Every structure is written in structure tokens, then in C-alpha cells.
Amino acid sequence: MAEATYTIRLDGLEVRMGLGIHEAELAGPQRVLVSVAMTCAYPAVPEDRIDQVVDYDRIREGVLAIAAGGHVMLQEVLCERVAALCFADPRVVAVTVRSAKPDIYPDAEIGCEIVRTRG
């Protein structure tokens, strides 16, 4: 049977974490929104069992662990860490990770987005 691809999404996960380089950001945690879209390739259409697919619970828990793991200076580094977490599963062939700090400016979010592919 032909390979089956799916996009697994985790959108708008809100975490509180140390993120940023400015004095106010270094003083304590802030609200950060993280979104992940993983392109997953399976050998065939999966059976109706969680072990047949990438478990988004593991991704969510991993993002929470990254957020709790200490201050990160750059959103780019945060996004790279989340992408590496996703690629721990060999069925993930591409990932888009977006982070946003919604409370820095009163009129806009500031964020970063990366797109990575395996290989």
C-alpha cells in the first residue's frame, strides 16, 4: 500500500516561560504561544490505534518541559528545540514551529516561525 501523509497540529499552546533578552523579560516568565505543524509519513493508512501515529500528547508534554527547563534568550532557539523534539519520531518528515510573545507590544504579537525538513 502507498505511503500516507498527514499534518498533525498543535496550535496556540500557551506556556509561561522565561524568554527574551530585555531586562523585563529576564525578570520573570511571560506568556508565550507555541504552534507546531508536523508532516508525518506512515507506511500506510494507519489503523485506529495511537501506536500507529505520532502522539501529539508527547509533543505537548515536550513543549511544556522545554518551557519549564530554564530561560531561553531567543525565540529562534525555542523553535529549534521544539523542532528537534518533533524529529525524535522518525515518522516526522517536516515541521513548522511558530512562537509568539503576545504581551510585549500593546498592538502586536512578536514571533518567530521556522520550517525544517528531515535530511
Keywords:
119 residues, alpha+beta, GTP Cyclohydrolase I, domain 2, four-stranded antiparallel beta sheet, 4 strands, elongated
The main β sheet shows up as: 4 strands, antiparallel
* Fraction of residues in H or I helices: 25-40%
Low-confidence stretches: none
What is the approximate shape?
elongated
Per CATH, the class reads: Alpha Beta
Q: Taking strands numbered 1, 2, ... along the chain, how are they ordered across the largest sheet?
A: 1-2-3-4
Mean of all residue-level pLDDT scores: 95
* CATH hierarchy: architecture: 2-Layer Sandwich
Q: In terms of structural class, how would the helical and strand content be classed?
A: alpha+beta
* CATH topology tier name: GTP Cyclohydrolase I, domain 2
What does this entry show, briefly?
The chain is of the alpha+beta class and 119 residues long. The protein is built from 3 helices and 4 strands. Helix 2 packs antiparallel against helix 3.
Secondary-structure map:
Elements: E1 4-17, H1 23-26, E2 30-42, H2 56-68, H3 75-87, E3 92-101, E4 110-117
Helix pairs in contact: 2-3
Question: Can you walk through the features of this model?
Answer:
The protein has 119 residues and is α+β, with helices and mostly antiparallel strands. The protein has a single domain, classed as GTP Cyclohydrolase I, domain 2 (2-Layer Sandwich), CATH 3.30.1130.10. It contains 3 helices and 4 strands. The protein is elongated.
